[in-house]
Protein 1
Amino acid sequence: MTGLATDLYELTMGATYLALGLDAKATFSLFVRKLPACRSYLVAAGLEGALAKLRDLAFDEDAAEYLRATGRFDDTQIAGLVSTRFTGDVWAVPEGRVVFGGEPMLEVEAPLLEAQLVETMLLNAIYYPTLVAAKAARCVSAAPGKTLIDFGMRRMPSIDASVAAARACYLAGFASTTNVLAGRLLGIPTAGTVAHSLVELFPSELEAFRRYASTVRGGVTLLVDTYDTLSGVRRAIQVARELDSGSAHVEAIRLDSGDLADLAVQARRMLDEAGLTSVRIVASGGLDEYELQWLESARAPIDAYGVGTRLGMSADAPVMDMAYKIVSYDGRPCLKLSEGKATLVGPKQVWRRRASDGRFVEDLVAARDEPAPSSDWEPMLEQVVSKGRPVQAPPLQGMRLRHQQEMRSLPRELLELDTRDARYPVRLSPLLEDRQRRAVDDVRRREGIDGR
């Protein structure tokens, strides 16, 4: 029934295409028109899930009956929709790579009906992971060398979204997730402590720590801020001394509220004075890249951060203008001229140039059929589906390593959290500019539009 996971107009347009015999090859382009105001780059993510949806595109008999019951489609149209499977080609920017506004992240080339029907599912699969991956990458940049843990599952829009977010975070450099399902499905390392409720169950915080430690195998992380944080640290120290080093041991304490920088300084001093220099400090509680940057600039002795709600909801930039638009049909260029929503014609490639030090210099959006500008430019879009069959993709760990290389190649100004003056150049090739101009002139002439 995956075919029904779409907007109604995809199906009504599809029915029209069937009725009119419009079945030639079409190219659609997926792109972000412009970056959110507080972003200087995005991180391509979600492609693996998008391709799985393409592979699974289908309508079962229940779906056919539902469409029939709406009264919007005749039997011939329903039969045409139900028999549709994706048989086309897809080019896409590999996951983990950095992308910018105004350049295609993915292009679909397929018979018109197939290319149209997959619009909603592709946007849905790529939009959210790309938002989260970009914010996660900013968190990693804000706290270099620190361990970051995805804490956001409980406040995600859905369980599926939480798995997608955990994957996007790991892709962008997070060390682990609290999401056990993501760990099982994706092989992402899992991490976690306890909630305050466990501490509150027992007559005293000390007894709670002792009872919890007695049941845990390996390293124990104690949550110390249920009542009074520094008192909690003292009790954690007491339990750490009591534990037999051959069984469980206290490996970390977690701070979840209050002035994290000041509390971390005091906790570190107390732990060190007790000879517990190896016990780490984990901080959490409403964190994102801005708070991480502040804590790092304050030299807070924090070893790891749990980042949750603000990351999973991309709180400072929850919306971006991502679109999926037709750019050619049956060899003819297609475009929109709408103010602020104009599109670029034809199948495309994005070329990226590096400086001698390996850092990115500029991107060039070109026609797919034109050659590379020169040998020092690299193509961004790779063929990921051929005749309906996905091309073998690297494992998640490989995507993660690729992303790390990307971040080392970003211009330094793009890594700053204040992005008001950070803009990366993306321009059009002369050939694409010429084709665009000709297509615009043709539409204006055909539609009787004043070109002034």
Protein 2
Amino acid sequence: MTGSFRDLKVYQLAFEAAREIRLISLKFPKEETYSLTDQIRRSSRSVCVNIGEGYRKRIYPKHFSPKMTDADGEATETSIWLDFALDCEYVDPKAFKALQEKYDEIGRMLNSMAQHPEKFTPKK
């Protein structure tokens, strides 16, 4: 596989989800600025960053797989922050469900990538 990390479906999905979280979090109360708002934005963006960093290291499977695992961990963190946002009634249940489904799919994809790094090694 060649090309850019931006061509990966998982990256595109994670970027789209991070963009949606930013828009939703704009409506969070000001008192959440340095806790929930900041944390959910950081973790959602970190999914994308770890995918990009890992993809650049795909020639080395022992570097690639941990980065995909890190991205999966950040996706899980984002999912948990979404749970808090729902519990506080900051996010609409329909939007929450759609985002949780996205993060479930992202997690499955990242897990598969971590388990099968050879599929992403550049061909010689």
Protein 3
Amino acid sequence: MNLKANIATMTTTLFIGKNLIELDSVDSTNSFARQLLSNSRPAEGTVIMAKEQFAGRGQMGNKWSTEAGKNITLSIVLYPDQLEADKQFFLNMAIALAVKDFCEFVLLDEVKIKWPNDIYYHDKKIGGILIENSISGSKITSSVLGIGINVNQEEFDEGLPNPASLIQIKKPADASTYDIPKLVEELCSCIEKYYLQLRQLHYNFLDKAYTEALYRYQQTHEFKRGESTFKGEINGVTKDGKLVIHSGTKELRFGFKEVEYII
């Protein structure tokens, strides 16, 4: 692990990214951030960015695979102590909306959130989010936001499901590849915007925006539950983050990994 810098470089935000730790290579930026938290209290909004993650992680132990130097792989430390533990999915909503807005800024086209926190352009995955919260009593004491976005990578492992990158979808007008540091500044600005909405407890705004941004929202599609398939229509998400699907006359609710999209 090679620590390159620990300097304030973001000029477009109030606090997200003001403290930036850049790493050449690390197992996982989320693991690095959690280790940092175990030994100190870094400033809120501290960003840990790596050129290479050799053991990147997604939700529920899934692996996040990325080509070194070509993508956004970072983690952000936050202290959402005004957020009660039973409302922690609102943090997920805020960050997913921020990443969605960022991707739309780059692509100049509509992007969706595949529940709970994958970022999709049409039927292709361009990014993912892993949020790890520390809870004390009924409050969240700290959060580590892990964000991976495929930017300049053009070849992916065959085993990955339907990946795509920003450059595959839209080439930059003024260069052969996207400038990662500039994109990270814009991403931090988007995250700060939505995180401030969360800090002001604008739950209804976040819930409505997240619901309307859902991939395949209010469309009839096939889903897989266990070994069986069924048709249904996504109708929203509960306050604790369960996906609501209407199938026939039934309203079904699913936690993560309890239902699969058929794409």
Protein 4
Amino acid sequence: MAYGQTYFVTVDGNAFQNVSSWAGITGTNSWVFTTKPLAPASDTTNIVVAANGNGDFCTVQGAIDFVPSGNTTPRTIQIQNCVYREIVRNNSRNNLTFLGQDRTQTVIIYANNENMNSTSPLRSMFYTLGYDITMKNLKLVNSTPQGGSQAEALKVAGLRFIFWNGELDSLQDTIMVSNGGDQAYFQDSLIQGNVDYVWGSGTVYFNNCEIRSVYRGSSPNGYICQPRNDAAHNGIAFVDCQLTGSGGSFNTQYLTRNNSKDSAPASQTVFINCMMSTNINPVGWYLDGSSDPAGLRFCEYQSTDLTGTNLLDVSQRPSWSRQLTASEAADVRDLSTWFSGWVPQITP
């Protein structure tokens, strides 16, 4: 649609099933709207999204589409408080900051999943492909119900992605960092799900986040993550995080399971000084199928209960997992080491 134009909408009376005695919407004056007079300046670096029409765009997708493909100019997309019901795709636009007004009131939500749109780029609620993407003060929700198939709230592809002071909600497959070499850093955020809800081949780091397993009414309840990184890349690290459970009393949530059939034999998950609820199975790690665990890097260091003061009894952890030394844990804490030179910068 063009700027500065008035449009009308018509709807046939038989457009909806199981609805009788409805004439539809007809005529040129029943449903009328006018587009904004002018587009933002093409070189603007601050774009405002407001569902009430007081911004540059009413949808997040509209703001992204305004940015040129392949963009490298740093731009901020300010998203005002509202519930935005949309599937969002950022394809090859770099250097973007998605800045919500409030992490509990700036919500992007939609029910998208494998049954509706097959393959992970299509089934995620928010998919971003690009370098140097930052998200702050946002709540992203894939509202697919339990049992509705794989349904990521967020899929990340690219280098140097940051998610800060936000919330990510889904059930199966909440976060996917897709490719070997992709980098994603999460801080001060809530992550919710139950079946492999952090997964992928990328290098990922969670700092001071709550990782909340949602009850699903079956056993096992699920697995926090499923890394698929190769031996040349680090996998998934949780540092100073809280591992909690909600929605029911269960004790069959595992920390991690490997990808079955040895498709990622060197995959890695590390928990450093994390506080863990009693929802976590005392075995901790799950070996899927007939896999050979010899190359797996499933490790932890000084896990405690939720008080943060009592070390967990890790005697039931499998022999092929490892308890790290203090120096090994310090290496994981070193962001430059974990991300091969990149140190994420958080600016309030």
